[in-house]
Amino acid sequence: MNRMNRKWWRVLTGLCGLALAAVWASPARAQMSEVKEKPPMYSYVAFWDIPRAQWGAMEKGIAADQPILDKDLANGTIVGYGDDTNLVHQPDAGTHDDWWSAMSMAGVINVLEQMYSTGNATTPVLGTATKHWDSIFVSRFYNWHSGSWKNLYTHGSSYKLRADAPDDAIEKLSKNMVVPLLEKLLADGTIHEYEVDTLAIHTEAPGTFYIFYIAANAEALDKAQAALRETLKANPLNGPAFDSMTDYTGHRDFLARTNAAYK
């Protein structure tokens, strides 16, 4: 994109941001099913960079956690759990992660303490990791199908808010663009779960949000992207408005093979 086009794009982005605010507030929009924030859901994620020779051992180690997580899912301590194998490797990204979600911070921490007390958090394969870090996310926009699945695909995207983005930018984007699209994909079975996350424990600077969805199969990844294109085509102001609130230089994507279970 040349300099002049970039200039006009910035102007268009600002104008469309104002226009979309008016569209979102219109009576026709108000008559639609309103998207509301839900009670906070917390997710603990442990990321690991495991040498390739140890990937088989890592799978066995993750499987050893399942009895604990199945029990906690059944008794309501958590609402979901799973593990991911990164499919698009980067020098500064892990190869594996495991996670669980609960409707309270206490829920995720109590499960973590169980992992420590049983020794599952200090197995030999984890000692081979060249990097390890944890994150705790919180979401107020999410939904899922009940059930358990193996070898699905998780698509994740991270976005950095612009410094001048409104305080309720994530709420506006979620209610008016992200959630309606993902709810449609959930209803037709293209995806089994989605969530819009921010960090509950700020191990990184505030201002980043994350959109994750679990696709039912590889073909569902294409279907989700096609649905996004159709949404932008049908609502041409959405894309520029999204860009007006986010700094695209901070955007990153994530794709993984996933095993998951939800209550």
Given the C-alpha coordinates, what overall shape results? globular
CATH class: Alpha Beta
- Seen as an oligomer or otherwise, the chain set is single chain
* Annotation field: number of helices: 8
How many separate domains make up the residues? Answer: 1
Main pleated-sheet profile? 8 strands, antiparallel, barrel
- What is the CATH architecture assignment? 2-Layer Sandwich
Helix content: 40-55%
Overall SS class: alpha+beta
Number of strands: 8
Task: Please indicate the percent range of residues in DSSP E strands (runs of 2 or more).
Answer: 25-35%
CA gyration radius, whole angstroms: 20 Å
CATH topology: Alpha-Beta Plaits
Name the average pLDDT.
89
List the helices and strands in order.
HHEHEEHHEEHEEHHE
Poorly predicted segments: 1-32
Short description:
With 263 residues, the chain is of the alpha+beta class.
What is the secondary structure topology, with strand pairs?
Layout: H1 3-24, H2 27-30, E1 41-49, H3 55-74, E2 80-86, E3 96-102, H4 105-118, H5 124-127, E4 131-144, E5 147-161, H6 169-187, E6 191-199, E7 208-215, H7 218-234, H8 238-245, E8 246-262
Antiparallel strand pairs: 1-3, 1-4, 2-3, 2-8, 4-6, 5-7, 5-8, 6-7
Helix pairs in contact: 1-8
